[in-house]
Amino acid sequence: MRMGFIRTVLLAIATLFVSTACFAQVGVSITIAPPEIPVYEQPVCPGDGYIWTPGYWAYGDVDEGYYWVPGTWVLAPEVGFFWTPAYWGWGDGGFIFYQGYWGPEIGFYGGINYGFGYFGNGYEGGRWDHGHFFYNTTVNNINVTVIHNVYNERVTVNNSSRVSFNGGRGGITARPTSREEAFAHERHVAPVAAQVQHAQAARSDPQQRFSVNHGAPSVAATPKPGAFKDREVVAAKPAGGAARSEGNARSEEAARPEGDARASTAVHPKDLPPIEHPPAPNTGNAKLDQKYQKQQDRLVAKQQQDREKLQKQQDQEHQRLAKQNADDARKQQVEQTHQQQTQQMVQRHTQQTQQMQQRQAPAPRATESRPRG
């Protein structure tokens, strides 16, 4: 009896150690950047007390690569607890995975815009009040005839990026606030058993792997953990499609990368649609319009050169793989790298075009300046 009691105590201590350690970085560091966050809708909340936990890309072994862990509704382990999502960060020459966790506050999650209230900093999806969780229906899919503890608060989202990692080339540049840094050392609770099983189910399903779904998993979100076969399961939309939630739909509309949804799924520059020329300048000043038109033409020509240069580089890598008789796992890794390179180029080109259009936009007249309702 005494030995059994001691073993029980030791097991409890070990469990506590695991629960306080697993929201730190997980021991995996890889050089291939994780894919973009898929575009998907949120399943309706299954009941009071459930909190949305957004989907994320996890990494298995070399053969599995990245696989999508669907977003899902999870019962909070304690009243007053929020979920801080997992994220990938660049460090020590590789991408490091930081596990999500529960706690009385929202911690740092890399500045990643997961949608549905997790727009990069904090949480706009709901709040606790007198032991009950109140849902913001602006960014959550709530059946108000079933759940009455709701409110409607408009959210402005300035970060429309779907980049899924922090730091490194092409990553989100956000840094934790002093409060988030302090909170990282305070009490947390590891993902509950249902979440762990949910992630394991995603890993065991080949259809969740990026190498198979190419960034648009057939199970992007579930109504409850592990409910991969439920009729309420949500599939990802073609990348570049509609916003992930009403909260995103009410944000500032982002320009579609290079004018076509195909840009968000392209693996190589040759898969991209033709570069769209910006609208012809029309400032009312013929000389200025001519100057702006030349700037537009130069930018389009430079972006076309970028495409050709990257395509040539990727073609050479394909040729090397063929000579080396590379196995499928190696080919998959290279294709993932190629897609990341292509997506980063698309994002860079989109930013260049937007910046040029902002510079060329005519200044508003003083008589037209008035508050907007």
The radius of gyration over CA amounts to 23 Å
Helix percentage range: 25-40%
Could you state the order of secondary-structure elements as H and E?
HEEEEEEEEEEEEEHHHEHHH
**What is the overall shape?**
globular
* Strands side by side in the biggest sheet: 1-8-7-13
Task: Briefly note the structural class of the backbone.
Answer: alpha/beta
| Strand percent estimate | 5-15%
Main sheet summary:
4 strands, mixed
How many domains would you count in the coordinates?
A: 2
Task: Report the average pLDDT across residues.
Answer: 81
Secondary structure: number of strands: 14
Number of helices: 7
Low-confidence stretches: 1-24, 240-261, 365-373
Distance between the termini: 72 Å
